[in-house]
Specification:
Helices cover about 30% and strands about 25% of the residues. With about 375 residues, the protein is of the alpha/beta class. The chain folds into two domains: about 220 residues, Alanine racemase (TIM Barrel); about 100 residues, Beta Barrel (Lyase, Ornithine Decarboxylase, Chain A, domain 1), CATH 2.40.37. The chain is elongated. The mean pLDDT is about 95.
Length: about 375
């Protein structure tokens, strides 16, 4: 019997919603290319499932974090153009060249390492020069770009295919800083004619909705692919057309009547206020359900919000299902993220309770939780 058939806690990946979201994003950018970001196991949705479906829709260029993410997909038989978005080290050049992964670069050492390796094996390797227009993380300073491109001209095996930048604040209501970044990037582009650069790209999910001037030749959507809002401050109302791709569900494994005043779970951080019916469900922080949500979240049972009580443990969590006494039974479905009846628990709701963002909620769902594609 497979693990997927016996593990009770699963994440369901709705491919129909993924298709809908991609069509929406493509409509917004028009004829520009979309290069979906599927790093971090496709933001926790299962990179193999997501990449396979995206290729079936005709998308064959993907953003990944590092070489190993790309290799895992290649080994699954997913042939695509993989753009490594995190700067590698020169020691990674042989692996990158061997599989023709397109790396972002912003150092002379990396450019030379890739060029030397490509020349050694008789290949030409494509790269994307990263410009720091205000992210403050990776990339060349704008006034260093031309000198860098001149340096790269010395290596015929190095093909500067793209030039790129990234927004740190495009998801904010005030777009002043992002517009300043766009201005800096345009100035860089004006000085890079004649270097054979094919693709200029900068737009992320937030920019696709709110900054159409940032589309250039390609856009790199991330969180929006998965039907989650980049933030609450997106101005374009079409963001509300996104449909969440992931649902996270489990099942009740045990029910127990307990008296008033009984302490529950480690540390007895919760005591019942009345005689209560308590359900145990097999999900915990080992599955990615943050322990900091203890006593601060609800899950859905029979379409009813049931309070989580006691400390969330590694493998098990308790729910107060007293309101469902006489209806609830062992084996019933429990929704952690998703819809059941008229009620819905969202990744944004859990993120707000934790003081974080929806990105972290879904990417933290553990690898031991099977991802199940549904159409």
């Amino acid at each position: 019997m497979s693990e997927q058939s016996i593990r009770l806690t699963k994440a369901f990946v709705n491919l129909h919603h993924l298709t809908h979201n991609m069509r929406l994003l493509q409509e917004l950018v028009g004829s520009r290319q979309l290069w979906p970001c599927i790093k971090a196991d496709a933001y926790g949705h299962g990179a193999t499932i997501i990449a396979r479906h995206l290729t079936s829709l005709g998308y064959t260029t993907f953003g990944i974090a590092d070489f190993e993410e790309g290799m895992a997909l290649v080994q699954e038989g997913i042939q695509a153009t993989y753009i490594v978005l995190s700067e590698p080290l020169p020691e990674h050049a042989p692996a990158l060249v061997a599989h023709s992964f397109e790396s972002t670069i912003s150092t002379f050492d990396m450019a030379e390492a890739l060029a030397r390796e490509a020349e050694r094996v008789g290949k030409r390797i494509a790269v994307h020069v990263k410009v720091d227009t205000g992210m403050g993380r990776l990339g060349l300073q704008p006034d260093s770009v031309r000198n860098f491109l001149e340096h790269c001209q010395a290596f015929p095996a190095l093909h500067i295919r793209g030039i790129m930048s990234h927004f740190p604040r495009a998801d904010e209501r005030d777009k002043e800083y992002s517009l300043e970044q766009l201005g800096r990037f345009r100035q860089v582009l004006a000085g890079t004619q004649g270097y054979g650069i094919e693709v200029r790209h900068m737009a992320n999910s937030a920019a696709i909705f709110d900054l159409p001037d940032s589309y250039f030749d390609a856009a790199r959507p991330g969180i929006a692919i998965y039907g989650l809002h980049p933030s609450r401050e997106i101005a374009n109302s079409r963001v509300n057309e996104l449909k969440p791709v992931l649902e996270w569900k489990t099942r009740i494994v045990f029910l127990k009547e307990v008296p008033a005043g009984m302490g529950l779970s480690y540390g007895h951080a919760y005591h019942t206020k009345r005689q209560s019916l308590i359900a145990t469900v097999p999900v915990g922080y080992g599955d990615g359900l943050s322990r900091n949500l203890s006593n601060h979240c609800t899950m859905l049972v029979h379409g009813v919000r049931c309070r989580q009580v006691g400390r969330i443990t590694m493998d098990l969590t308790l729910l107060d299902v007293t309101a469902l006494r006489g209806k609830v039974q062992q084996g019933d479905e429990v929704v952690i993220i998703g819809r059941q009846g008229a009620e819905e628990v969202t990744a944004d709701e859990l993120a707000q309770k934790l003081g974080t963002i929806n990105y972290e909620i879904v990417t933290c769902i553990s690898h031991r939780v099977p991802r199940i594609p549904i159409s």
